[in-house]
C-alpha cells in the first residue's frame, strides 16, 4: 500500500479517487480535484470528467484553494448563481477533506481542511525532496506504457555569432532557453540542448585575414572570444577605410589625366585585387571549396570560442548537447531543399536569384530570397537545410527556437516554407519562443559586449552591496564566489520577471537590491531557511513523523496551502512556457514565508513544536530550491 493510501485511510477516506491521467501521489491538487469531482457529480448531475478540469487553483488564498466557476459545468435550465447556491447547500458538511464551499456569485470556493492537508502535503514534500512538484510521466509517449520511451524536444537557444558581441538578445535567449530545457527535462522529456552558432559567411574570411595581420597567438589562447572580436573590429576598420578610399579614388580619377591618373588607377586596382575585401572573399571561397588549410584556421577559431563559451555557460548551469551552427549545415541538405522547392513550385526564379513568394499565404510573410544571384546560400537557406537535418538526426516531437522577436518574420517564413515543401508535420512540431528587448544594457565599463563582462560587472556590484553590511559580510566564506552567484541570480531574475514579450530596462541597481522581487531577495529567503535548519540541529529523518497538529497558526496553514500549489504551478508553466509563472509563485510563497517568521519561531520553542515548525520550513526550502533550480538559479546556503 502506498503512503498516500495509508494517509487517506487514517483520515477515514477509504477509496482514493483518481481521475484518468492524474497523479494524486505527486500532486495534492490532483487528489482534491478528483475527490471534489466525484463528490459533485451526483449533486450536479454532471459528469465528473467535466467537473474535474473546471476546478482551478486560486491566486489568492482568501479565495479558497480551488474554485469552481459554475458556468463551466454547462448545465442547462438553471441560472448559474442559483445553481451555485444549490450546490453549496447540498455539499456535505462533514466531508473529511474539504469544507463546505463558500458561494460567491457564480463561483464555489473550496477550502481544504487544514489537518488532512498538512498530513498529505508535508510528508510528501519531505519524501520527494528535489523531485517534489515535477512529473516525469508527462514526457512519456504513452503514460500507461513507459517502455515506449520518452518524447524528444530540441531546444535551440543562445546561438551567438563568433567574433561578434554577445548582445542582449543572446542573453535573453540563453536565460529563457536554459529554463525551457530544464522545464521539459523535469517533465520527463528527453531534451537536446542546441546552440546554433553564427559561424559561417564571408565575415569569417574577413576574420582570418584580420588574424594574419593583427592576431596574436597567445592572446587568442588566453581570451579567444575577446581577442577575435578585437581582431574583427580592427580589420573591419581597415576594410571600411579601403572601401572609402576606393570610392574617393574612383571620383578623383575621372578628373585626371596622364601619369597622375595612372598612379591613382594603380592604387585603386591594388585595393580591388588585394584589399581586405577581396582577400576575405577568396579566403571564404577556399573555405566553401573545402580547402583544409583555410578550414583549419577557421575551425580553430570556432573550437577555441566554443571552449571559452562552455565555461561561461557553465556559470549559468547550462551545458549543451550539440554545438551546431550555420557552418554545419550540409550543402547536400540545402541542395535537396532547393530541389523540393523547385519541384513543388514553392520557389521561383527572379532576376537570377531564387525566391519564395510567401504573400500567397499571407501578405505579412512577404517574399524571401533563398539563393543569391551568385549561387550562395543565406541565413534562411541554412535554416531550411538545418530543419531537415535535425529531423533526420533526432526525430524530435517538438523543436523550440528561442530567438528575439526581431526575428519573428524570419522564423514565420522558415516554418511556412517547411510546410509548403510538404513537411507540414515537421513544421507543426516547431515553435518560435520569442521575447522583447533589453533596454540600456550598458555597464560602468561601457556597453557590455560579452556575457562574461556582463556577469562580472553585476557580480562586482553585488559585492559592493554585500559590503554595506559589514557584520554579515565577514561571515561569508567565499565572498567572491557568493557575489558572483548572487549577481547571476540578479540578472536572471530581472530577465524573467515579466512576460517574455515585454521589453525591460537593464537596471543594475534595482536588480542587485535585496528589497523588492529580485534575485538577491530569493537567494536571501533560501539562505535564511538553510540557517534555520542549521541552527535547529534536528536530523532530517526525524522530521517525517512530526506532529502536524501542532502547526495551528494561520501563518503555518497558509504556508502549507501555498506549498501544496507548487505541482500545479509546474503544470501551468508547461502551458504558458513563461518563467514568470514560476517566479510569481515563488515570490508569493516567500512573502508568506517571511511574514511567518515572527509567528513561527523554531529556535527557543519546545521540542515538538520546534520539530513540526522546522519540518514546515524544510518543506518550504525544498519548494523554493526546486523552483529556483528550475529557473536555472543556484540556491546559496549562506550569504
Ligand atoms: N545567430 C543568430 C543571431 O545572432 C541567431 C540564430 C537563431 N536561430 C536560428 N535557427 N536562426 O541573430
Please give the share of residues in helix: 55-70%
Small molecules bound in the structure, each named once: arginine
Oligomer: single chain
The end-to-end distance, rounded to whole angstroms, is 43 Å
Shape: globular
Per CATH, the architecture of the largest domain is Orthogonal Bundle
CATH class of the largest domain, named: Mainly Alpha
Q: Could you state the CATH homologous superfamily of the largest domain?
A: Isoleucyl-tRNA Synthetase, Domain 1
The biggest beta sheet is recorded as: 5 strands, parallel
CATH topology of the largest domain: Isoleucyl-tRNA Synthetase, Domain 1
Q: Which band does the percent of strand residues land in?
A: 5-15%
Radius of gyration: 30 Å
- Kindly give the count of domains: 3
Give me the count of strands. 16
Structural summary, described in words:
The model has no long low-confidence stretch (mean pLDDT 94). Strand 1 and strand 2 (66-69) form a beta hairpin. This protein is globular. Helix 10 (258-274) runs parallel beside helix 11, helix 13 (331-343) packs across helix 14 and helix 21 (519-536) runs antiparallel to helix 24. The two termini are 43 Å apart. The protein has three domains: 3-112, Gyrase A, domain 2 (2-Layer Sandwich), CATH 3.30.1360.70; 151-322, HUPs (Rossmann fold, 3-Layer(aba) Sandwich); 444-631, Isoleucyl-tRNA Synthetase, Domain 1 (Orthogonal Bundle), CATH 1.10.730. It has helices spanning 3-10, 28-44, 48-54, 80-90, 114-128, 168-186, 202-214, 217-222, 224-254, 258-274, 276-288, 292-315, 331-343, 379-394, 408-420, 424-429, 451-467, 470-475, 479-496, 508-511, 519-536, 554-576, 579-596, 607-631; strands spanning 56-57, 66-69, 102-104, 107-110, 152-156, 190-197, 322-325, 347-350, 353-357, 367-371, 398-402, 430-433, 438-439, 442-443, 446-447, 504-505. The longest helix is centred in the middle third of the chain and has 31 residues, at 224-254. The strands form five sheets. The protein has a five-stranded parallel beta sheet, with helices on both faces. A four-stranded antiparallel beta sheet has the order 1-2-4-3, with helices on one face. A three-stranded antiparallel beta sheet has the order 8-9-10. By secondary structure, it is of the alpha/beta class. It contains 24 helices and 16 strands. Bound molecules: arginine. Residues 156, 159-161, 196, 198, 383, 401, 403 line the site of arginine. Arginine binds at residues 156, 159-161, 196, 198, 383, 401, 403. Its EC number is 6.1.1.19. Residues 522-639 form the DALR anticodon binding domain. Residues 30-112 form the Arginyl tRNA synthetase N-terminal domain. One of its GO terms (molecular function) is arginine-tRNA ligase activity. It catalyses: tRNA(Arg) + L-arginine + ATP = L-arginyl-tRNA(Arg) + AMP + diphosphate.
